[in-house]
Design goal:
By secondary structure, the chain is α+β, with helices and mostly antiparallel strands. It has eleven helices and 16 strands. Helix 1 packs antiparallel against helix 2 and helix 7 packs across helix 8.
């Protein structure tokens, strides 16, 4: 509380002394916050002209965390078009053979997959001699470069592939029994996992899962206590296996007579007929990526767009080619940045605050991007920056030792500015970093 009070005093003092003391006051605020000044990068520019209003270490490459999604999302939508839809399509040929063309749709559900099979059965496709799966929309690399092995059980970082289904997450139910006795643990659907159950019935819901993926990937150790039933989500360790199990469930449920397994094959260009399709609008991804900061949706969209750019299977290399072309089209200099994934999860990503604000200036008229960023009280800003109300539209970024925020701010004087603040500091707390971000933005808001 003392630290917060000291920074608020500085805000009041800053507003009183005006423009000339801005840099000094920011320096003082950084000192009071406990954040290492060398770990802070800031750039503030006029949104219309690009004129520099304030900068600190603006050329230092920093880890951007999820603020990177601003750039990868904009590039992907430019390639795919705002009318893009994720599609999962079911076809048949003249021999009554079935082709399921996957779209790496991050919003596809098991129920929708079941409905596809139900439509096929209703159209008398009851005993197909063969069932092919076209999974060439994106490649089989399911995690990003530099992602951390100890995040493998993190539900915010599921694997992603052509076989996206149910957000690639499993629902694990944990139920109490009698006090001090082992809890009950089970999945909502069949998936070949074994739980080493060390959870007991106790006075609180406090359960952790761990897995030695390199030794026993299908064995999960559950530890802790449970007081009342709750559901814990964990990523599927093998999305393709999960998808095929749910596809088999759908076939049995809808009474399609097929038992011959699934073969990988590209959908032929001729002599095939659409049976049915599941479609999801780009707007779902827009909300998931910009407001909720979904890594899963961001990575899927980025690779899909990379595939569209090269008219081939999507990969991170193709996505980066697409991004390079988009940056060049916007006449930006990317020599000081490095992008290795679509979500900002990897610590191998590098960004400069100067580049980010140049990018935001170039996107100032991009209504699809700007108007879909969260305002305070929305998405990742649900409990943050409430002081600014609808004057702020921003993307946050949080990673181990990293906090960042970038976006657009309409100041007290009506000036539209762009900003980027990145803090890569291992010794300060997340709250210290976020408090400093708010101080800087309050100072910008009051001054410009």
């Amino acid at each position: 509380m003392k630290k917060l009070f000291n920074i608020l005093v500085l805000i009041i003092a800053y507003i009183a002394v005006g423009h000339a003391a801005f840099a000094y006051t920011v320096d003082e605020a950084i000192s009071e916050s406990g954040v290492n000044k060398g770990a802070v990068s800031i750039s503030v520019k006029d949104a219309s002209s690009g004129k520099v209003l304030y900068q600190l270490h603006q050329k230092h490459p920093m880890i951007p965390a999820s603020t990177l999604k601003l750039i990868t999302y904009a590039a992907a939508v430019d390639t795919l078009g705002q009318d893009f839809k994720f599609k999962t399509e079911l076809y048949k040929n003249t021999n009554n053979e079935v082709y399921l063309k996957l779209g790496a749709d991050p919003f596809l559900t098991s129920k929708e997959l079941e409905n596809l099979i139900g439509t096929a059965v209703s159209k008398k496709i009851i005993e197909p001699p063969k069932f092919y799966i076209d999974d060439f929309v994106i490649d089989s690399v399911e995690w990003g470069e530099g992602w951390q092995w100890d995040d493998e059980m993190n539900p915010l970082m599921p694997k992603f592939s052509s076989y996206n289904l149910d957000k690639n997450l499993l629902n694990v139910f944990i139920e109490p029994t009698s006090k001090g006795a082992p809890a009950q643990i089970y999945l909502s659907v069949f998936y070949p996992l074994t739980f080493l159950n060390l959870v007991t019935t106790g006075e609180a819901n406090d359960v952790t899962f761990s897995r030695k993926n390199f030794i026993t990937p299908d064995v999960i150790t559950a530890e802790g206590t449970v007081k009342k039933q709750f559901v814990k989500k964990i990523p599927t360790n093998y999305p393709k296996r999960y998808f095929l199990l749910r596809l088999e469930d759908a076939i049995r449920e809808k009474h399609m007579e097929y038992y011959n397994g699934f073969k990988q094959a590209k959908l032929p260009k001729q002599n095939v007929y659409l049976v049915d399709a599941v479609e999801h609008d780009l707007s779902l991804a827009t909300n998931a990526i910009l407001k909720e900061s979904s890594n899963y949706a961001a990575e899927s969209l980025f690779k899909i767009a990379g595939g569209k750019f090269v008219n081939n299977t999507g990969s991170i290399e193709h996505a980066k080619q697409m991004l390079d072309a988009y940056i060049e089209k916007n006449k930006l200099n990317s020599s000081d940045i490095r992008v290795v994934d679509g979500s900002g999860v990897s610590k191998n990503n590098l960004m400069t605050a100067d580049f980010m604000t140049d990018f935001l200036v170039s996107e100032f008229k991009n209504e699809n991007l700007v108007n879909n960023l969260p305002i305070p009280s929305e998405g990742t800003l649900t409990d943050r920056m409430l002081y600014f109300k609808d004057k702020l539209k921003a993307k946050t970024g949080t990673n181990a030792d990293v906090s960042a925020i970038a976006g657009y701010l309409t100041t007290q004087k009506g000036t539209n500015v762009v900003f980027d603040i990145m803090i890569n500091d291992s010794k300060s707390t997340p709250s210290d970093k976020k408090m400093l971000e708010e101080y800087v933005l309050r100072a910008v808001y009051s001054n410009y």
